[in-house]
Amino acid sequence: MSDAFYDYVRGRSDVVPEGHNERGLQAYRHLVWLGASQMVESHFPEVRRELGEDAWRALIAAFVRDSRWQSHYYGDLKDDFLAFLAEHTA
Fold it and tell me: Does the global pTM surpass 0.85?
């Protein structure tokens, strides 16, 4: 996959890469966000409760877009999320 593909699905760009369908990529973007949201919440349920829904959605969108998360496994997100919080709340 190209960098443009990853940039789109992580919300770093809204430019649909050549050869891809916007509707399909929007679905994939949502699935990436949903997977990250569910995995992070499973480790840190109190964060979602304390933030409220709007702030939680913004936090997860920022994490997916801006973090250094590179693994293809959602199970690796816990440490990446903690690193993201440390960098962005200092």
Answer: yes
